[in-house]
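Retro notes - structure team

What went well: the batch runner handled both jobs without manual restarts.
What didn't: labels got mixed up in the shared folder, which is why I'm recording both outputs here explicitly, each with its sequence directly above its C-alpha cells.

Job 1
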Amino acid sequence: MPDRLSALDASFLYLEDPVTPMHVGGVAVFRRPRSGFGYPELVSLVEQRLALVPRYRQRVVGVPGHLARPVWVDDRGFDINYHVRRSALPRPGSDEQLFDLVGRLLARPLDQSRPLWEMYLVEGLAGGHVALVTKTHQALVDGVRTIDFGQVILDAAPHAPQEAGEEPWLPRREPGAARLLVDAVADTVRRPAELVENGRAALADALAATQRVTGVVEALVSAIGIAARPAPPGPLNATVGRARLFAVARARLSDLRDVRALHGGTVNDVILTVIAGALRSWLLSRGEQVTSSTVVRALVPLAVRDEVADGTVPGMLGNQVTPQLVDLPVGEPNPFVRLHHVSHELRAHNDSVRSVAASALLRVGGFAPPTLHSLGARAAASFSQRIYNLVITNVPGPQIPLYAGTARMTEMFPVMPLNKHQALAIGVTSYDGGVYFGLTGDRTAMSDVDLLARMLEESVEELLTTVRA
C-alpha cells in the first residue's frame, strides 16, 4: 500500500497558491577548489546520496474523488537534471546579484506533479565562489521519515563524488485508480471520520485540513506565556504578493557569546535581542510611532524533547518543535534592558526539562539546520497568523567546516517562507564561527528589507559596546 500523506503534510499542499508557495530553502556559498566543482560533480554527488532520502524520488498522487488524502508514489519519469539546475551571474557576481536571484527563484512554486524539491548551482560569484540554492516543500520534510537534502549532501571532510552505485534505482509500479480507491476504502473503514474530512477537501475547503492542527497548537498558547490576543498592528502585518526579496546579515558567534557572558541569558536570547534592536531602528526609519510599550510579536519555534522518548538525538527531531510567542521589546531604547526582557520571556522554556540545548542539537548527524528550519516553518504554518507579526527560526549548526564533495562551505543562509499576512520572516543559523541571518520579505511591503539587514549588523555592534569597553 502506498504511503499516505499525513493530515498536516496534505494541508501544506491544499493551502499552497501562487502567492504563498509552501516551501523552505537555503543559500549555501562554497569556495570552489582548484580541482573544480561544477554542475557534473554536483549531479554526481546528488545521485550518490538520493538513496538516503527515497522520498526525493517520489511525487504526490491524488485519490479519485478525494476519498482519502494523497499518497507518495515513485516517480517513474524522475529526471535528476530537472531537479538539479544550473544558473550563473555575470562575473564577478556580487552578493546583491546573488540574493536578487534567490528572491526570484524562491517566489516560484514547485511543480506538484514532480518530486517536491529543486536545487540550483549558481556560478560566477566573485572570488571563485559558487552558491547552492535549495527549495524543499514543507509537505516533504517531517524530520522523521524525511529530512532536508542539505543534511545528507554535506560531509566533515572533502571527498570526490563517486559514481552512482552499480544497482540502478528501480521505481515501483504506480498504483492505478482502482488500487487507490480500494486503499482509500480500507482506510475509511479503519478511520470513518476521515471520509467527511476528505469530502470537505473535495469541495475546496482546504482550510478544513489545517483547522484541526491550528486548534491543537493554539491550545498551547496559554501554556507558552502569551494569551491568544491579536498581534500588535504595524507594517509587518500586510497582505503579501507574489514577488519576494531576500537579504542577509552576518555576525561572529564569539561576539554574541561575549555579550551573553557579560549580561546573562543564552545565545538565542542575544540573537532575538539583536533582531529587536534592528526592528526598532527600522520602524523609526519608516516614521512609525514607537513608544516605551511598543512590541513586535515573534513566533519562535523551539526544539523540545518528546515527553515519552528516551532523550536520544533521533527523538529530538521527530516533529518536536514547539511554537513560542515572544514579545520583542522594540520600544525599549536600552539594548541591555531589551536583552533582559527577552531572557525573562524565554526563561520558562529555557528552564524546562523538555527544552533541547544547542549542544544537544549539534550532535545530530549531518548538517541538521535545514531540517530544523523546515520543522520550524511547519510549526509556524499551522499556527494562527492573527496572533504574531513574524516568524524567527534560530538553529545552531556545527562549528567545523563542511564540504559538498571537495568544495568547502563558507556561509549558509536559511530562506523562510512567508504566510499570507506576514511580510517578513527571518531564519538564523550558526556555522563554523559565524552567525548567518536570512531575511525573506514581500517585495512591496518590505522593499527596504536590505536596510533591515544592515540594521541587524548595527544592532550587534550596539550590544558589543560594553564588551569592548
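Job 2
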Amino acid sequence: MMDLISCYSQYAVQVSESSSCSSYTPSNPCIISPNNFIPSTQTTVNSLYKITLSSGDHHFITVTWHRNATTQFLHINSGDNSLFRLNTHSGFFRKKKGTKWFETHESKFEIYYDLSSAQYAAGAEPVEGYYVLIVINSDVGLLIGDMTEETTVKRIKTHKQIGKFSLVSRKEYFSGNTLYTTKAKFSDAGNWHDVMIRCTGENEGLKHPVLQVCIDKRVVIRVKRLQWNFRGNQTIFLDGLLVDLMWDVHDWFFNSDPGSGSGSGHAVFMFRTRSGLDSRLWLEEKIVKGDDDDDEKKGFSFFIYATKS
C-alpha cells in the first residue's frame, strides 16, 4: 500500500524544471524575473528557536533583527523576558562585541556577541561576519552567525554540556512594492531555497491581478483574479516534505483602515511543513510555545508579512 507521504505528494505541486520564472516575455507577463523589478525592503526578521538543554529543560528564544532608515537593532527575548537589546545602527553603534548576563526563573543566561565585522545586504539581518552565542545554565544553547573565531570555539569548549536547538518559526517583514525575495530553509537537514513572491497588476498590462510564488526560479503557485481569490492555500512538495502554502492578501484590496498609516494594507504568506498524518490546515495562533507533545506535528513555520506603500 502506498504510504501517506507518497499519496499526498501525488496531489501536491512539485518544484520542477518545467515551470520556470527565470525569464520575462510580453506574451507571458506573469513569468517574471527579479532583475526586472526592485524588490521590497526587508525591515524585520523574527526567529523563534526551541532550545533543549542537557537536563531536558526547554527554552524558547526569540531573536529579532530590525532595520530601517533611522533605526537598527538586535533584540533577544526568552518568553516575555527581554534578555538583550543592542543598537546596531552604524551611526551610533559603539560596543560591537561583548558579553551580557541575565537571570530569570531560576535560569542564568550568558550572551556573547561579536558584530564588529558584520556585513549587511539589503535586509535587516546580517549575512556574514558575526556571531551570537547564548549559554543557558552552563549549557551552550544557541549559536547563530558564521564566525568561527578562536574566541568563539574557546567559549564553547569552556562549557561541558552542549544543548540542542531548532528553528521553530521565522517571520520576515517587508515594505514597498509587491515583489518579495528571500531565502528559506524548511528543515534542519534541508537546503536553502530562493523564494520569490510577486503580484502583477493592471499597470503591467493585465486585466486582473495575478499572484505568483517561485521557489528556486520555478513557479509553484499562480493565482489568477487575485481580488476574488485573495485567500487560499496550496500544498507543495519540497525536499521530501509536504509544505502548506497559504496566502491572505485581503487588505491589499479591501483595507478597512486606510488612515492607519499602513499604506495599502498588508498581506501574509505562510509556509509550514507537515507530515502526511497531519491533514489539518493551520493558523499562526495554533503555534503555542511549550506544547511539547505536539512539537513534531507542528513542523517549521515561515511567515512573510508584506506591506504595500
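One thing worth noting from job 2: The two ends are 52 Å apart (CA to CA).
We'll revisit the folder naming next retro.
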